[in-house]
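// run 5 | inverse folding | seed 20
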């Protein structure tokens, strides 16, 4: 395949040398998007469909975070993504100046909104508008396994109680786990890093009270649907 010189130049620029001292600090927290009641590690909330849920345990593995420059056009963006297809991503991707590749396991043992430090990127100077989050199975080197030892090899582990919205069926307990991949792109809203603005910080927020929206915990694909909801619940802010 012949690659247009301008595309090759853009790709090389995106991976160019970094400015000494530039830092982008990334954190992760779990918090509700609507309302939730907290009792120790238990979170109780109502889904968008009116089902009542009590999560007694929730762990999720964020495999990697990668940021992308604002100037990448949509056509070039698709070409660059084709060089590293998301479907072949591994649980532990290599870290680069623009990508954190160390998996982190996070769960509800932390209070809502309490940040977990993911790490610090040292990208080249420029403006960055998008971040790609990849949720993937934890490997033996994943951070957070000391409090979730059985998460090795898993992307998701969710346990709790589910009461259908009709109220006609009794509440039931559920245990869901998955070792699949899920990814999502979130907006950075234009972070500019240069010798005049050497540092910035952003926190990835996961809204746990949306994870069971539209999910029947007895369905065969329930865990995969929850994993998709987790990815879609991600936002990025200060």
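// decoded
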């Amino acid at each position: 395949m012949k690659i247009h010189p301008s595309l090759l130049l853009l790709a090389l620029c995106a991976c160019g040398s970094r400015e000494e001292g530039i830092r982008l600090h990334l954190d992760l927290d779990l918090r509700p998007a609507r309302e939730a009641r907290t009792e120790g590690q238990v979170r109780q909330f109502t889904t968008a469909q009116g089902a009542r849920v009590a999560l007694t345990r929730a762990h999720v593995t964020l495999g990697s975070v990668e940021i992308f420059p604002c100037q990448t056009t949509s056509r070039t963006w698709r070409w660059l993504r084709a060089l590293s297809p998301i479907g072949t991503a591994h649980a532990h991707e290599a870290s680069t100046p623009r990508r954190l590749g160390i998996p982190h396991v996070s769960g509800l043992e932390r209070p809502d909104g309490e940040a977990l430090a993911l790490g610090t990127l040292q990208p080249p100077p420029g403006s960055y508008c998008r971040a790609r989050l990849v949720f993937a199975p934890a490997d033996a080197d994943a951070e957070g396994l000391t409090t979730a030892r059985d998460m090795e090899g898993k992307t998701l582990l969710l346990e709790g109680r589910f009461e259908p919205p009709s109220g006609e069926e009794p509440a039931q307990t559920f245990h869901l786990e998955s070792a699949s991949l899920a990814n999502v792109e979130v907006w950075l809203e234009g972070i500019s890093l240069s010798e005049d603005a050497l540092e910035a910080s952003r926190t990835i927020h996961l809204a746990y009270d949306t994870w069971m929206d539209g999910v029947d915990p007895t369905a065969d694909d329930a865990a995969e649907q929850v994993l998709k909801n987790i990815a879609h619940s991600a936002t990025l802010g200060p």
